[in-house]
Amino acid sequence: MDVFSSLMDGFATALTPMNFLYAVIGVLLGTAVGVLPGLGPAMTVALLLPVTYVLEPTSAFIMFAGIYYGGMYGGSTTSILLNTPGESSSVVTAIEGNKMAKAGRAAQALATAAIGSFVAGTIGTALLAVFAPIVVKFAVSLGSPSYFAIMVLALLAVTAVLGSSRLRGFASLGLGLAIGLVGIDSVTGQRRLTFGQPLLADGLDIVVVAVAIFAVGEALWVAAHLRRNPLQVIPVGRPWMGKEDWKRSWKPWLRGTAFGFPFGALPAGGAEIPTFLSYVTEKRLSKHPEEFGHGAIEGVAGPEAANNAAAAGTMTPLLALGLPTNATAAVMLAAFTSYGIQPGPQLFASQGPLVWALIASLFIGNFLLLIINLPLAPLWAKLLQLPRPYLYAGILFFATLGAYSVNLQAFDLVLLLVLGALGFMMRRFGLPVLPLILGVILGPRIEGQLRKTLQLSAGDPAGLWSEPIAVGVYVLIALILLWPFLFKLIRRNRPAAMPAGILAKSGSSEPTDAGGSGSHGSHRADATSGGDGDGDG
């Protein structure tokens, strides 16, 4: 009841005219910058930080929260329409969302993303308000072995199920892990894969890599095939979700929320891992697995819900531990510090009104984003009616702008071109791009957790499975890797029994073969002409 009364006080503060205005400004700015490749919510909060020094802390953080949620919403727009993620957490949405757009279902993809974001954000914010102490306690209890195991699971789970060839998937993952190694080793100070270039010492920014592989690679691929499809115009299709779309979306929304919030609350979590895992889960559970890779609506609904639930979960360690789990949370931590406020266990006691107003503003911002984005879905979808050359010229312009704005260095434009050519070659030879992005994101994190684990165990490899959660995750990893071989063994051991069942069905259709004799007759037939029985079945 204390939580409920505190939350009501927070709503009373957040709904004052001035604070509500800042919430509206925040969600509009966040959506606008989320649409632009590379200009994510972290950069927007950082740019606006000096401007907000004249505001009261409560108003400033309400606007920051609106920018954060708006950026998450806006990132799905370019992922779906232009195959250009604005944030690394929107990478998975581009896989199925852009295929839906090309099939004339852009409005449905944008609608399921908006509604899923609203559902997940609302549930995630409610969980933040009610269960924050429990989630924080669980997150703190996990050690480096568990984090390492979970990240390895994310790598292998995604790589193993994408594409028609595991070899190509792991080749793409290897490229991503290699790109993730670029820079100075934080422990030894050794330069890795920098080729004597000082500007590579800090590594490659994930936004530059994602924009190059997705946007530039896609634009080059389309340009190479324009003669076959000159000035192709993509149909917009029906403007709203149909009954079947709702039926196929609501379960992925809930499952994505279940993935997103816990991972967002983990100190080493973030929104990337749960979006990847949500996509894998929906592909496994879907009644239409053949649609994945061709525009399955579950592949948009689940990851987008996971993305926004993780955004709510990210606020848990930030507020309760003072621990940021992504770039935007890190900038917000800097904002707290600039106001002389220290996030941590004492924050709820010392700055209760501010914290509960911030949490209430997340509910408000989520609702504002739904009523802003849902009616605009058909209008956004009409962008696809632009002729391809004009559309992709705009993509390249915004991709270049986004990549340059990350570090304001011309060298990033060279990287954009080189990695864009890599994205083109990957499409040419059928390599999936998602494992590469996953390798770039998780590679450095996995390396850090592996080092911590081995340091704690004095170099003993047994330290990798020293926690129960790590052991459970390794069992899942073994099942994922061994499943194809087990499946082949099961199919190899079936022939002795399978034709009998098939022939029994064919025998039962004959008038003379009734009752129990049908099964015996089928076994005899199996011994002599099992191949014919299979063919008839």
In a nutshell, what does this entry contain?
This protein is mainly alpha-helical and 537 residues long.
Kindly describe this structure:
By secondary structure, the chain is an all-alpha fold. It folds into 2 domains: 2-490, no CATH class; 502-536, no CATH class. 73% of the residues lie in helices and 1% in strands. It contains 21 helices and 2 strands. The chain has helices at residues 2-14, 17-35, 41-48, 57-82, 91-102, 106-141, 144-161, 166-181, 206-224, 243-265, 272-285, 298-321, 327-338, 347-350, 352-381, 388-407, 411-428, 434-456, 468-493, 498-508, 517-536; strands at residues 183-184, 191-192. A two-stranded antiparallel sheet has the order 1-2. The protein starts with a helix and ends with a helix.
Mean pLDDT: 77
**Please, how many domains?**
2
Q: State the major sheet.
A: 2 strands, antiparallel
Distance between the termini: 64 Å
Proportion of residues in helical segments? over 70%
Structural class from helices and strands? mainly alpha
The topology string of helices and strands comes to HHHHHHHHEEHHHHHHHHHHHHH
* Rg, Cα atoms, Å: 26 Å
How do the strands of the widest beta sheet line up side by side? 1-2
Number of helices: 21
What is the overall silhouette?
Answer: globular
Task: Count the E strands.
Answer: 2
Query: Stretches where pLDDT falls below 50 for ≥5 residues?
Result: 497-537
Task: Report strand %.
Answer: under 5%
Please give a handful of descriptors for the protein shown.
21 helices; 2 strands
